[in-house]
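I have been asked to look over a protein record a colleague put together. Alongside the sequence sits a line of tokens, each denoting a local backbone shape. Please read both lines and tell me whether the tokens look consistent with the sequence. Take the sequence as given and treat only the tokens as open to question. I have pasted the whole thing underneath without changing anything:
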Amino acid sequence: MSQTFFRYFHDLFKQPSQSDTQVFQLVELKYDRVYILYAFLIHFSTYFLLILPPFFSFIPDMLPYLFGITIARLVLLSQNYAKTNKLGFIIFFSGFVSDALLYAAVCSALVRAPSLENFYLSNAYLMAMSVPVLLYSLRLDRLSCIYGGVYFVFFHLVYIYFIPANIVESTSLLSRVFPIFIFTGSALIGSVFILNKRKNISDLYKLSEERRYMQQELELAKKVQDALFPKDLKIPGIKYKYYRKNPNLIGGDFFDFVQLREGNVGVFLTDVAGHGISSAMVASIMKVLVSTIPYRFKLSPGKLLEYLDERLAKDLNKYHASAVYLFFDFVEKRLNIGNAGHPYLIHAPKADLFSEIETNGAILGFNIRSPIVQEKLLSFASGDRFVIYTDGLIESVTSRGEELGAEGFLQILNKNRALTELHELEDAILQELKSEFGIEAFADDTMFLLLEVD
């Protein structure tokens, strides 16, 4: 308890850092205006004294004090939207004058009607003046409540001096000075409120700055990741279009082309578990692994995926991923497929229906199976189309509350299979997802890749 009190007392007089000072200067005027508004509204409550004993017996004598309080608060209210560098001083001066007039009114009534009953009533009214002290806690000035408490203690000491002698003789010292303890306690409590508010503002600003910095880092990471994707890359023998969407700017969905000798092409696509920064970094690492893998592995989906499985299990044992690798052999006109726990490849012979090609394989990163996949060979011809996608697409929830599923995606593809250009098919897929299934946004990383053999 004593340590907590000492910490607050230390914070009360500790010089704030330059950054904190700049932050407080940005919002201090806003809090001062809130204080001014509440101070103006609350001062009207002093007029209730006119219906309380003994004040209702001296209404003509009390009104000048109350009108003076109203004038002081009106002057303060007029400064609420004025451009002034001395608003803090005006707030303090207005409060000092208003509270002094209120104290003078209470003291005047007691002097006019010096009874023991009126003394205790006056004490009760004066202790209610802890509200103006606490009201200063609406501000950000660390010493606002302390200033208020100090001048209220001063007022009360003057008030004690003017208490009639017969009341002094009939009361204890504690009863006469008790309001001083109330004002002191209110000043300390209000100061704690102010310090906590300043700390919260400082913390929120720091969090905001960290968030802004992280956002900048994410945007930079997005640019880096975007640069890793093929852009306007001419792939001999294949036309392609792709779509990807990440809820967190960057994600773990990634694909790349592997250009090989004799005009052959490999297509690698992966979906790292999770989404965000960590999965995006793992996806980038997998691109590097695929780019630097021994050439002979690039000719075999099974060997390439098994190599990635071992590296993930050994070097990144907290992460796993699904992946698919397609090896287009344009000499033999054959496609070799390796699928490691990924959604099935979709194939449509020229002008024919789209259908899934079932494959068998385990997810990467657990090193639980060797060989990791069973390769599958498929003949292809000019005009054939292939579609690879990540599960974020088919796991999207439709307007009917159901997942789209592979069947829903196949329905969209077959409905638009007559479209001759891949960009038209891409636009149609996105339009159908929105209009037919009510999917306007994806909750997970989502990507699909459209391929067409020249």
About this structure: The chain has two domains: 2-210, 229-453.
